[in-house]
Amino acid sequence: MSAATLAMPGVATDAVPRAGGEAIGVRGVGKTYRTKRGEVQALADLDFSVRENEFVTVVGPSGCGKSTILKIIAGLLGVSSGEVSVFGRKVDSPRSDVGMVFQTPMLLKWRSVLDNVLLPVEILRRKRADYMDRAQELLRLAGIAEFAAMRPKELSGGMQQRVAICRALVYDPTLLLMDEPFGALDALSRDMMNVELMRIWSERRKTTVLITHSIQEAVFLADRVLVMSGRPGRIVADVKIDLPRPRHPRVRGTQEFMVYSNRIHQLLGVEYA
Ligand SMILES: Nc1ncnc2c1ncn2[C@@H]1O[C@H](COP(=O)(O)OP(=O)(O)OP(=O)(O)O)[C@@H](O)[C@H]1O
Ligand SMILES: [Mg+2]
Fold first, then answer.
1. Separation of 240 CA from ligand 2 center, angstroms?
2. Which of 4, 91, 213, 252 has its Cβ near the most Cβ atoms within 10 Å?
3. Residues 31/72, Cβ–Cβ less than 8 Å
4. pLDDT at residue 116, as a whole number
């Protein structure tokens, strides 16, 4: 995507591909962590799939295994049982085509903000110069362009997380996995980042899985919301969000939106009870 495309004002055109074949398949996945103090069963018999170009959000109580399943899909963590496939291939090692945003920013403290954003480009041995415009444009979109030369510790927690989001988007990954990417942001920045993410996604339609504790965010962004049970996590509901796209931020005030939000709230409430 060129910087010019990225910077295009307004929300997406309708000329975007529809969801395609299976991008992610999670079949019968169980995960038990073995620690000195015993075993923790994080996931048990988890099943779901995500189609190509789909935007899926995941909500569920704290500790139900959301981060765990995302790391498994990225190939950063092995399963204890079951199988995960990405684009038809079994995941058994870290994938280079996955853009991952972790729950904490995980920036390299000795590198500048810009150099942190460009890190994946270097790891993939691509030419830095080819990605410089895009990195700067992403920083601008994230509202932190003027911090490009600073070190991460000079930024607030929310700003650091925005750097991590730019880093995940810089090399145009096929799959975007985001673990509560906006959790550290204030409400207004969060709303703005939601809209920006929506715009970027609509232009490129990357297969995306995003974990969030915000029901509003889950509904606004998603084609489908997966609701997980308490630990060990399972999918208790798969809610298709039939709100038309492109979605204007005002959709959050509509009756239809409220109905979806209330339904998911209820589904989670049952689990929290
Ligand atoms: N490295 C680990 N070693 C041992 N136990 C772990 C490890 N990582 C996670 N767990 C445990 O596995 C369970 C699921 O953790 P996970 O981080 O996936 O939850 P989560 O749904 O992402 O929670 P949150 O919403 O609070 O981020 C928790 O009970 C946690 O204590
Ligand atoms: Mg987590």
1. 23
2. 91
3. yes
4. 97
Q: Whose CA is nearest to atom 20 of ligand 1?
A: 63
Is residue 179 in a domain?
A: yes
Question: How many angstroms separate the alpha carbon of residue 94 from the centre of ligand 2?
Answer: 19
The finding on whether 35 has its CB within 6 A of some atom of ligand 1 is yes
Q: How many domains does the chain have?
A: 1
pLDDT score of 17: 45
User: Which residues of the chain have a pLDDT value below 70?
Assistant: 1-19, 270-273
C-beta of residue 3 within 8 angstroms of C-beta of residue 133: yes
Return d(Cα 172, Cα 206) in angstroms, integer.
Answer: 9
Q: Is residue 135 in a domain?
A: no
Report pLDDT for 55.
95
Q: Which domain holds residue 184?
A: 20-97+174-272
Residue 244 lies in a domain: yes
- The answer for residues whose C-beta is within 8 angstroms of residue 105's C-beta and 6 or more apart is 152, 157, 160, 161, 163, 164
Q: What is the per-residue pLDDT across 20-31, written as a single tens digit (0 to 9) for each?
A: 799 999 999 999
76 neighbors 103 (Cβ within 8 angstroms)? no
Looking at residue 155, what is its pLDDT?
95
Residue whose CA is at the smallest distance from ligand 1 atom 25: 62
CA 204 – CA 47 distance, rounded (Å):
27
pLDDT computed for residue 64 by the predictor:
95
Residue 263 lies in a domain: yes
CATH number at residue 261: 3.40.50.300
